Amino acid sequence: MAAKLIIDTDPGVDDAFAIALAAVSEDVDLIGVTTVFGNVPLAATTANARRVLALCGREDVPVAAGAERPLVHPHPHRARYAHGADGLSGRSSALPEPSRAPETADAVSLLASLLDAAREPVTIAPIGPLTNIAALLAAHPGVRSKIDRLVIMGGALGHGNTTAAGEFNIWSDPEAAHRVLSGGDVPAVLVPMDLTYRCAVDLGWLGTLESSGPLGAALRALTPDYQEHYRKALGWDGLVLHDAVAVAEAIKPGILVTEALPVQVECGFGPARGATVVDNRRPELRADTEGQPAGATVDVAMETDLDGLRAFVLDRLAMGRS
Prior knowledge:
Blueprint: E1 3-9, H1 13-23, E2 28-35, H2 42-55, E3 63-65, H3 80-83, H4 107-117, E4 122-126, H5 131-139, E5 147-153, H6 168-172, H7 174-183, E6 188-191, H8 193-198, E7 201-202, H9 203-211, H10 214-220, H11 224-234, E8 238-239, H12 242-251, E9 256-261, E10 263-265, E11 276-278, H13 283-290, E12 298-304, H14 306-318
Parallel strand pairs: 1-2, 1-4, 2-3, 4-5, 5-6, 6-12
Antiparallel strand pairs: 7-8, 9-12, 10-11
Helix pairs in contact: 1-2, 1-12, 4-5, 5-7, 9-10
Region (Disordered): 82-101
Protein name: Nucleoside hydrolase
Domain Inosine/uridine-preferring nucleoside hydrolase: 5-308
């Protein structure tokens, strides 16, 4: 039986790759996509998600729009510098026009109804700011038992990408991230940018994807602005498909090697706002210094077979060539 998956997203080029990865995987039952502000405003992230599903021939999947701003404080800026003005390198309109309208229900309501109706636990892959997920866990505690795990793309163990300390998804709504990552409500995997950067793909990988068929060519066509940004970030010609790495773990549990660690999110207004503070100390030392046993932990993704991960994503996306 195909595993049930919901993606919460803010497309975004890497989000588009991630949605497509799930949409064309035959061992995944993609039962819903919810959208959130982030790389671009909510109207654009919702339109982009619907267009990517149309590209994949998956308009059976319902899409619901969610939070248009963070839980507490205004969002400082978008990520147009990486994803272009429309979130897809200015090429959103080149994707198919979707025939299915967004759901009239909001994202949290759709999440709650899908989970309530599920007969087995559902994996949720939040690959944008965590606002919708924080609201779901707070407002609908009864659905927590229906969540198998959250596989979250976000955070950084070393340095950030939006600020010196903050990775974009967590920095976009630190209060929501704190609620989700520190609450221990449901099992969670955190896929930080330290690992996703190491999974970056080169021009050869992209060329193989482009030549695999219409889906691969369409996805490659979305990357010019994103590639230009990552030429600066990486120092070489390539792309970091952050969100696709997290969705790969959602599809194939264990493709990433994780370690259970406490995670805190900095919600202050100094230069570390949005930082994910991962406690790598031994549990015994934590108990000695904090005077209490360790609390909730998150499975933080630390390692993977880099070539195997790249091949997994490429092979799955190439399956959508028809």
